[in-house]
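Predicting holo structure, 1-O-phosphono-alpha-D-ribofuranose bound.
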Amino acid sequence: MIPTPHINVKEKGIIAETILLPGDPLRAKFIADNYLENAVQFNEVRNMLGFTGIYKGKRISVMGTGMGMPSIGIYSYELIHFYGVKNLIRIGSCGSLQENVKIRDIVIGMSSSTDSNFAQQYNLPGTYAPTASWELLKKAVDVAERKGIEVKVGNILSSDVFYGDDPESWKKWAKMGVLAVEMEAAALYMNAARAGANALCILTVSDSLVTHEATSSEERQKSFTQMMEIALELA
Ligand SMILES: O=P(O)(O)O[C@H]1O[C@H](CO)[C@@H](O)[C@H]1O
Ligand SMILES: O=c1cc[nH]c(=O)[nH]1
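Done. Tokens:
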């Protein structure tokens, strides 16, 4: 079924096998403008900008996903099932839940806890642990080490709410060692697992629920470059 309802690409192969997925489509454009050679835009439906280009001789795509699990659920499903994408690497911003996870630190989600009901569709006889691809995770950690970039790897929280009713609920996740909160990784990991594809989520800490420090929206769009540079090496 191509083009799909949300991606206006008529042929397989136009989208590369490896794709970077920021929530913000303008972050996708920033990556295409600043890192990719011969970048060609493949999607503009709903302004969810997507591009394919070359990075260090390898084809790679980058596309926004929007915010939240329903949104990344749609895009990742279409990319995997209709366009044959194999490696999906979310690059996003997150809120720190731990004192030692500082603003602008990089967090990699080895696994993602969630308050979402996304897993209900699979009718499992228990709870499911959304988990990153080991191959992508290992590669990302190796790249970070080579570049001298410190990363914190562990469990993250994918939440359905940015403005939750209980301002203290994050502390219950924090006491279980969860590093940071964002809103998409768990659905991405589940869609990838169900389809036999590979997924990873690399995050930059944009704000801290512990200290209340925060970065500007411009910084979030343009200057979280270390996570981009790690992700680009995974093609
Ligand atoms: O910066 P992105 O990738 O959008 O990620 C985070 O930022 C958004 C909330 O501001 C949510 O999508 C959350 O997951
Ligand atoms: O989902 C998010 C992203 C950044 N900061 C948060 O507190 N939550």
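Helices lie at 25-35, 69-83, 134-147, 170-174, 185-195, 217-222, 225-232.
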